[in-house]
Design brief:
Keywords: Isoprene biosynthesis, Lyase, Metal-binding. The protein is of the alpha+beta class and 157 residues long. Helix content is 30%, strand content 32%. It is globular.
Length: 157
């Protein structure tokens, strides 16, 4: 068994969709990034790659490659899962937290869990997704950006 941790942050900006955990969330701003900037899935991918000692998402999906411009991060997560399988690993469980002041994410958490679970062929009860505020402290508290952290447990198949 191996454990990995991932962290990601993206700035909020006007003129972009807010997509977290593969869910399109109605909000006045979206996350800025080369792909769809899905902060949760990026943290999950980094945790998975780290657990398997396979580097980071920046190495596998560089923001200098036009192939990944605007790409759906669920597709990238599928690629990471295929890489893990090719190296003989599978996800056992995931725990994660999304850090933002707004919008409120509770109505979307279950859909996020389901989206992630489907990629790995797991039941959603193996996928933990939570959201928290920073009590208006720091960049997330000021509404400048959103961060996410993820911890995964993988094992050899």
């Amino acid at each position: 068994m191996r454990v990995g941790i991932g962290y990601d942050v993206h700035q909020l900006t006007a003129g972009r969709k807010l997509i977290i955990g593969g869910v399109d969330i109605p909000y006045a701003k979206g996350l800025d990034g080369h792909s769809d900037a899905d902060v949760l899935l990026h943290a999950v991918m980094d945790a998975l790659l780290g657990a398997a000692a396979l580097g980071s998402i920046g190495e596998h999906f560089p923001d200098t490659d036009p192939t990944y411009q605007g790409i759906n991060s669920l597709e990238l997560l599928e690629n990471v899962n295929a890489l893990l399988i090719s190296r003989g690993y599978k996800l056992i469980n995931l725990d994660s937290v999304i850090i933002c002041q707004e919008p409120k994410l509770a109505p979307y958490i279950q859909d996020m869990q389901t989206n992630i679970a489907v990629v790995f062929g797991l039941s959603a009860d193996r996928i933990g997704v939570k959201a928290t505020t920073t009590e208006r402290l720091g960049f997330a508290g000021r509404g400048e950006g959103i961060a996410a952290e993820a911890v995964v447990l993988i094992e050899k198949i």
